[in-house]
């Protein structure tokens, strides 16, 4: 596949992404009985890899900015791309140059030191916390469009490893240490197919948080890949006949 290419959808699908059935590549459309691959969060490099490995026809979900533009991916030319006769000629030309004499090359390597950052045994002992040291954040996440609860939404405290997911009712619960987060936290809320949100939460309030998530703007449908070879790729094709 060419390093430069375009993705086009000539006939967009009007089925609702949120009503399709989840599968391992995106969703399954019951209307047309096809898998719809979710490319919406793919980088240009990931798109190139996927289309290089999968040449068959399929349907996809894309963001508008991924379509109808030239996607450029850095080319990596392997020596196997060239004919043996060209390789032999290049090798002969290389060997015809005078050899370097008395070239002493010294390599120096940086010396690294490791320090023992382990905490003392005393620091590893967990201190008992009272109930007042903790606060519980509760909330519910729903689809802004149809008002239905969203299942398995990722809820994470920003800049930390603390997180959870919503249950079948769209509800979640986080238990946080006040000493670590003090008076407020920012929740990073993410769900495939929906716009991500950041929500500031006041830990001094016990209110239940209601989060409405908006579906991402996306385009569904069968797509076509239009290869646009780079200058070097065109030269390679000419050399290889």
UniProtKB/TrEMBL annotation:
Domain of life: Bacteria
Protein name in UniProt: TonB-dependent receptor
């Amino acid at each position: 596949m060419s390093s430069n290419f375009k993705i086009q959808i000539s006939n967009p699908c009007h089925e609702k992404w949120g009503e399709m059935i989840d599968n391992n590549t995106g969703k399954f459309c019951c209307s047309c009985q096809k898998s719809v691959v979710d490319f919406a969060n793919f980088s240009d490099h990931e798109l190139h890899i996927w289309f290089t490995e999968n040449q068959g026809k399929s349907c996809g979900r894309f963001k508008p900015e991924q379509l109808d533009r030239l996607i450029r991916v850095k080319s990596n030319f392997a020596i196997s791309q060239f004919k043996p006769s060209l390789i032999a000629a290049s090798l002969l030309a290389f060997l015809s140059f005078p050899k370097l004499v008395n070239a002493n090359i010294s390599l120096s390597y940086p010396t690294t030191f490791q320090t023992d950052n382990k905490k003392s045994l005393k620091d590893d002992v967990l201190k008992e916390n009272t109930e007042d040291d903790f606060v519980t954040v509760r909330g519910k996440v729903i689809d802004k469009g149809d008002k239905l609860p969203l299942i398995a939404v990722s809820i994470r405290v920003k800049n930390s490893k603390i997180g959870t997911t919503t249950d079948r009712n769209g509800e979640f619960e986080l238990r946080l240490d006040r000493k670590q987060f003090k008076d407020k936290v920012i929740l990073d809320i993410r769900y495939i197919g929906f716009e991500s949100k950041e929500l500031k939460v006041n830990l001094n309030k016990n209110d239940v948080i209601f989060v409405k998530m908006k579906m991402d703007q996306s385009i569904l449908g069968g797509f076509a890949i239009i290869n646009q070879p780079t200058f070097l790729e065109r030269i390679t094709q000419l050399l290889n006949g």
